[in-house]
Amino acid sequence: MKCPHCGAELTVDTNFCSYCGEPIKTETPESTEKYKASHNENRFNTKTSNEFPFDFPDLNSNQNVIKHKKDVISVLSIIALVLFGVMGLIALFTGRAIATVIAFIQIALIIVTIVFKKKFSNSRNKGLGTIAFVLSLVLIFPFLSLYNTGVSKPSGSGESSRSNEKIEWESIVLKDRLPKPSSEYGEINSNSSDRLSAYVYKFSANDFVSYIDLCKEKGYTVEAEETGDSFDAFSKDGYKLSLSYMEYSEEMGISLDEPIELSKVDWPDSSLSKKLPKPNFEKGLITEDSDELFSAYIEMSFDNFNKYVHKCEEKGFTVERDSEDKYYSAKNGAGNELEVSYYGNNVVEISIKEPIFKVNINIDCEENLVFSKYDVKVSIDGLYEETISHGESESFEKELKAGNHKIEFESDEDRDVKGSIKIEVKGNDTFDITISCTSTKIKAKLDSSDDSDNKSISDNEDSDVEETTKEENKSESSKASSDNKSTVLTKKNCKDLANILQKKDPADESIEKFAKKYEGRAIEFDGNIVFCSKHGSYDTRFDYLLSTGDYNPNSQIGPQFKFENVGYYDLNTNMDTVSEGSNVHIKAIVDHYDASSELFYLEPVSVTSR
pLDDT tens-digit profile of 185-205? Predict the structure, then answer.
């Protein structure tokens, strides 16, 4: 049935119209017949009476026009809701945050439209629904603008504008070293006599397979490694080729490097190269040898590469170890970072870096009540850091290499009023410094705990004398406690042993002094097995690398102790197996310290579990 007031379709048993809210009178058969008769009579009557039993829905009335508009907006609202939902999901999954927010705002506006059209159709607020609907449509424009600007097409994609760039193959310096690709489209990133780096676009997977075959025919067959999307090989004269393929963008990457020219060279005797085991080689190329970095290419087979890695482990490079088929990296106890990689074609690349530590420097400026209330400029190793307001505190996190560093302080009112302090960095550490301001200078003092291994020297104080006196006292105390040579040395009865066991640098000069002073003496301490390997070609003789404290693969403190060429029964152990990672109690005889390898050799007395 229809509502007699607005013409909306209603169910038969409805008492009130859900659209206009007017009550619905139930028609009886009698009234229906009277209505029909009256209607038929008036159809042919030119003078239509204005009095009817109830309102007759006129299709040309304003109410029916409004109803029609409502139905159109309702349908459009449903369509828009689905559309904005799809747009929002696309923006969300493609990482377009702002476009995603706009899409959800559009969805919210459509929901407002539907609610207002349903609940407030006869209210003065009914226009708000239309406004919300129009606003949701307007937001389509900023959505499309943000979404389009946020999309970055894949490199080399056929849809990218740069895919139409052409390669001038004749302009490539190393063109004679490679077959010409079937596609003329691409981009050249590096073009010289020693290196080519380029991308080829509009290149199918079949083109890639065919190009690999052409490269093999060209002579790239030495140590060749091939997968579905990559190819690596050397030519007989040492050129290194690397190909990669991206199927989604139909793009091939080309990398070609000239041979590394090796010649007869001696292994240097620099501070960093001495920390490495000397490789057995005839030809090489030293690329850098400074206080911060040593790197070299060495003529070495893949088998000898693995043997050299093993020697590096024995040398103490086992901290934060990362090992793969052709790559090895680790740090030693002093923090030096080693990288050894098999470059290919019997060439190995070796590099070692001076350790860089993260150091926190906390500076507290004491406040004066009346005079000398100036701010203080702070510099570290001559580089300005920040100005500390008088009476305030500041903290700095710096990456510093091992060794001494100078922190300078200067009044921002008078450049002649200054002070400084030196800190010794041996690892990741924190330095708390207090400064006080006077009219003529800035005093600096390091607030360190008693067990701190870091030293500072203030330019304003006679710290050199004080430190010397402390060391002399320690030496005398150690001597007194160790007069009886039959006594086993421990951290409690020998301050010299306690001192070296907490050193962060295995090359600290105090370790070598200890080894010479106490050669042949028995020592005892809690330690761990850092590394274990067979000695030479023996199956029952082993080399052990030891450290103090509990086992930690990412950190090592104290000397790098070593048991060399020992059997299981030489350890006098209560353990079924003495393996890497075991925490043990060690008794041993001091043998000697090797400065070149930074290894402290011991003869085992017993190794027991703890």
Answer: 999 999 999 999 999 999 999
What CA–CA distance (Å, rounded) separates 189 from 185? 14
Spell 281-319 as b/e; 16+ CB within 10 A means b.
Answer: bebbbbeeeeeeebbbbbbbeeebbeebbebbbbbbbbb
User: Rounded distance, CA 494 to CA 4, Å?
Assistant: 110
Q: What does the alpha-carbon distance between residue 189 and residue 184 come to, in Å, rounded to a whole number? A: 15
Q: How far apart are CA 560 and CA 540, in angstroms?
A: 23
Q: Which two tokens stand for residue 142?
A: 């900023």
The rounded mean pLDDT for the chain is: 82
DSSP-assigned letter for residue 492: T
- Tokens representing 425 are 């960095």
Q: What length is written for the chain?
A: 610
Is residue 42 within 8 Å of residue 36, measured between CB atoms? no
Check if the beta carbon of residue 258 is closer than 8 Å to that of residue 315.
no
C-alpha–C-alpha distance, residues 2 and 12, integer Å:
9
- CA-nearest of 507, 504, 553, 501 to 525 is 501
**Spatial contact of 508 and 427, defined as CB atoms under 8 Å apart:** no
Low-confidence ranges of the chain (pLDDT < 50): 29-31, 35, 42-44, 46-61, 65, 148-160, 450-483
Q: Tens of pLDDT along 5-63?
A: 777 777 666 666 766 767 766 555 444 555 455 555 544 454 444 444 444 444 444 55
**DSSP label at residue 11:** -
Strand order in the sheet with 376-380: 383-388, 376-380, 403-411, 418-425, 456-458
Residue 11 CA to residue 3 CA, distance in Å, equals 10
